[in-house]
């Protein structure tokens, strides 16, 4: 079945649909009828608008949600710089990142059981600037503790696309609860407040933060009206609220710096909401793979789940691409991805299993690789040898595996933490993967002493 068989059962209810208009109330009658901001909202609630785009954005792009809450989000103390530094996050600057053409690969990142989710965030790569809403950032998270019961976090910098690799995230957001397990992704849009607890022990994974715009479903073009990630398979939370008058700490990520404020009420007091700007999750096992049934290997864009488009049509600031289990049936075809140099940068991670284009063992779950703009890459030597000589029968590959790619038109820099501090960069990546490739060139023998016009090596 095209649904992941999760070992941890779901415990929340959801509404289905990608950027669908949803309305939900935890108390019947909490949503006003026929008006968004009545003089006196039901049950003494406050009306508050949450905007993901400018009010005047075109209707098909406009993302707005109305919240009906016990206390407005503005009721907190002044933000001050967070005094506790988070190595690998605070102090890292996108402007200071190292831009290098080398192919990079990282060993699996270890789990730090001494920190919570927020304090585990590490900036590894990125480009652009949150201040001008351009570009993206890529993070690693690994934690062993729940966030404090009265701590909440939001990013003003961009949308978080969270890819769990190990463990379970129980995410309490302003708009309701989301359970995130490996082989699911969660998107939490810019500005939405949330708290992460770990009901099944330590967690680890990857994050793509999109500073520019919001994620969309890719256009299907000649594929037609169905395929890839289907709209109905995205799940948004239902309203759930708590009311308490205790001291809370609110953390804000603002230009990759952390600030904190205090308030005497829960940030999760939204009793009802309606609109199109909300967090959501998606089971990667529901992705409908499209592939070649005749010859040649299609471009990896055919595996795009979500895209963050740029102002140039067809070019993405960030694509989220996956490589799920799938059948290969092409005739007379080298079936793994071909060798290539790409105008896009490719940051890859592995949730579980083995990636079919890297059978040598160096690319492992919880590890990563980066092939920057025009950095040559492709199958390692053992994969090339096997694929060049295998019998081309229908074969299902990737069983029990899920690799993914954050792809961007931007040149991605690498942080100090990612290049040095983490001590995970594999120094032998090139040697192991490509230096051992051998020449198989066998030109035809000259006939009658006449050459073919080609120059010979001396």
Mind explaining what this structure looks like?
This protein has 458 residues and is mainly beta. The protein has a domain of 151 residues: Jelly Rolls. The protein has three helices and 28 strands. The strands form six sheets. It has a nine-stranded antiparallel β-sheet with strand order 1-16-20-13-10-15-8-7-28. Strands 6-25-24-27-22-21 form a six-stranded antiparallel β-sheet, with no helix packed on it. The protein has a four-stranded antiparallel β-sheet with strand order 2-19-4-3, with no helix packed on it. The longest helix is centred in the C-terminal third of the chain and has 9 residues. The chain starts with 13 loop residues before the first strand and ends in a 23-residue tail after the last helix.
Annotated CATH architecture of the domain at 285-435: Sandwich
What count of helical segments does DSSP give? 3
Q: Which regions contain 5 or more consecutive residues with pLDDT less than 50?
A: none
Helix content: under 10%
User: What is the approximate shape?
Assistant: globular
Q: Which structural class do you get from the secondary structure elements?
A: mainly beta
DSSP strand content: 25-35%
Largest sheet: 9 strands, antiparallel
What's the pLDDT, averaged over the residues?
93
* Separation of the first and last Cα atoms: 58 Å
Oligomeric composition of the shown chains: single chain
CATH topology of the domain at 285-435: Jelly Rolls
Looking at CATH, the homologous superfamily of the domain at 285-435 is Jelly Rolls
Report Rg: 24 Å
Query: How many β strands by DSSP?
Result: 28
Question: Largest beta sheet: what is the strand line-up?
Answer: 1-16-20-13-10-15-8-7-28
Q: Which CATH class of the domain at 285-435 is shown?
A: Mainly Beta
Protein name: homogentisate 1,2-dioxygenase
InterPro entries: HgmA_C (IPR046451), HgmA_N (IPR046452), Homogentis_dOase (IPR005708), RmlC-like_jellyroll (IPR014710), RmlC_Cupin_sf (IPR011051)
GO biological process, one term: L-phenylalanine catabolic process
Organism: Amylocarpus encephaloides
């Amino acid at each position: 079945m095209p649904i992941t068989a999760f070992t941890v059962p779901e415990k929340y209810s959801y509404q289905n649909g990608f950027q669908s208009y949803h309305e939900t109330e935890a108390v019947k009658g909490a949503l006003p009828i026929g008006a968004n901001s009545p003089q006196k909202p039901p049950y003494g609630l406050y009306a508050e608008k949450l905007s993901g785009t400018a009010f005047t954005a075109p209707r098909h792009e406009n993302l707005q949600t109305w919240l009906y809450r016990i206390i407005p989000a503005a009721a907190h103390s002044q933000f001050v710089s967070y005094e506790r530094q988070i190595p690998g996050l605070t102090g890292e600057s996108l402007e200071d990142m190292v831009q290098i053409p080398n192919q990079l690969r990282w060993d699996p990142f270890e789990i730090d059981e001494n920190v919570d989710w927020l304090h585990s965030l590490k900036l590894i790569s990125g480009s652009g600037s949150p201040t001008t809403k351009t570009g993206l950032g890529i993070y690693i998270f690994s934690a062993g503790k729940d966030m404090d019961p009265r701590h909440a976090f939001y990013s003003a910098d961009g949308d978080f696309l969270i890819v769990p690799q190990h463990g379970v995230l129980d995410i309490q957001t302003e708009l309701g609860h989301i359970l995130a397990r490996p082989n699911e992704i969660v998107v939490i849009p810019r500005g939405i407040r949330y708290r992460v607890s770990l009901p099944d022990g330590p967690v680890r994974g990857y994050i793509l933060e999109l500073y520019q715009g919001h994620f969309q479903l890719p256009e299907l073009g000649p594929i037609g009206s169905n395929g890839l990630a289907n709209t109905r398979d995205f799940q948004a939370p239902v309203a759930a609220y708590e009311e308490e008058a205790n001291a809370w700490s609110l953390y804000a990520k603002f230009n990759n710096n952390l600030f904190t404020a205090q308030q005497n009420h829960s940030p999760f007091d939204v009793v009802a909401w309606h609109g199109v700007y909300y967090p959501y999750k998606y089971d990667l096992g529901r992705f409908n793979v499209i592939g070649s049934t005749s010859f040649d290997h299609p471009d990896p864009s055919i595996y795009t789940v979500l895209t963050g488009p740029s102002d140039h049509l067809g070019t993405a600031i960030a694509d989220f691409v996956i490589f799920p289990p799938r059948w290969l049936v092409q005739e007379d075809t080298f079936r793994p991805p071909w060798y290539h140099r790409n105008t896009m940068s490719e940051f890859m991670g592995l949730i579980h299993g083995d990636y079919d284009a890297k059978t040598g063992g160096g690319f492992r779950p919880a590890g990563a690789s980066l092939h920057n703009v025009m950095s040559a890459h492709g199958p390692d030597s053992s994969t090339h040898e096997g694929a060049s000589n295998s019998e081309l029968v229908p074969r299902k590959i990737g069983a029990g595996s899920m690799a993914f790619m954050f792809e961007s038109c931007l040149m991605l820099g690498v942080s100090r933490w990612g290049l040095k501090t983490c001590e995970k960069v594999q120094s032998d990546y090139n040697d192991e993967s490509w230096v051992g490739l051998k020449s198989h060139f066998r030109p035809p023998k000259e006939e009658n002493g006449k050459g073919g016009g080609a120059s010979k090596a001396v």
